[in-house]
Design goal:
The structure holds 2 protein chains of 2 kinds. Chain A is mostly beta strands. Chain A contains no helices and 10 strands. In chain A, strand 4 and strand 5 form a beta hairpin. Chain B is mostly beta strands. Chain B is built from no helices and 11 strands. In chain B, strand 7 and strand 8 form a beta hairpin. Chain B is globular, with a radius of gyration of 13 Å. The chains are: A mainly beta, B mainly beta. Chains A and B meet through strand 4, strand 5 and strand 9 of A and strand 5, strand 9 and strand 10 of B.
């Protein structure tokens, strides 16, 4: 199975900061990488698919990049409503696996 | 509007069985692969199972293979998960999830909670 490793596990930043979360796959997954946002007590929400495509309705301050084994989710300017846990997930082959999550907090 | 409404969660004893259901609306259900994804309390997301559009192809995580069975009724626009031989490790919030394209999970229900405890 492909293992997904996110870093950091938690992150604290100021509103307006640029925030970067990384995700590493244990094997080459091309661009088969998706990012989800989960706010406390809520279901996950798709943000980015195919490594860099923004889901409809997601603010443009969110962006994704990478291919192969190394991927990045960037928030260009952190808003208070971005407080959530972020998960990467590969869909290269079954079983689809998720990273362990990155909990983002506001300072 | 896409709505996925899970039901069937309960407290069950180890070794017991439970059947989860998901009622789907707002999209052409029989066009899409569907999944179950679970989240143990305070933990991350774990993919559990998928079923393709006509039910002809299914897949399971190793942790549930042989114990869980996914099924769908396209006429009723519903998804089910039959869970047998439950252990405490199966305690989680179970999400019904729509697949937009080969594992891209675009809509999630609010989840139904399963607690396995004696």
């Amino acid at each position: 199975d492909i293992q997904m490793t996110q870093s950091p596990s938690s992150l604290s930043a100021f509103a307006g900061d640029r925030v970067t979360i990384t995700c590493q796959a244990s094997q080459d997954i091309s661009n088969s990488l998706n990012w989800y946002q989960q706010k406390p007590g809520k279901a996950p929400k798709l943000l980015i698919y195919d490594a860099s495509s923004l889901e409809t309705g997601v603010p443009s301050r969110f962006s994704g990049s990478g291919s192969g084994t190394d991927f990045t989710l960037t928030i260009s300017s952190l808003h208070p409503e971005d407080i959530a846990t972020y998960y990467c997930q590969h869909n290269d082959r079954l079983p689809y696996t998720f990273g362990q999550g990155t909990k983002l907090e506001i300072k | 509007e896409v709505v996925l409404a899970e039901s069937g969660g309960a407290v069950v004893q180890p070794g017991g069985s439970l059947r989860l259901s998901c009622a789907a609306s707002g999209f052409k259900f029989n066009d899409y692969t569907m999944h179950w994804v679970r989240q143990a309390p305070g933990k991350g997301l774990e993919w559990v199972s998928l079923i393709n559009w006509d039910g002809g192809s299914t897949s399971y995580a190793k942790s549930v293979k042989g114990r869980f069975t996914i099924s769908r009724d396209n006429n009723e626009q519903s998804l089910s998960l039959q869970m047998n031989s439950l252990t405490t490790e199966d305690s989680a919030l179970y999400y019904c999830v729509k697949d937009i394209n080969s594992g891209v999970l675009d809509y999630w229900g609010q989840g139904t909670r399963v607690t396995v405890s004696s």
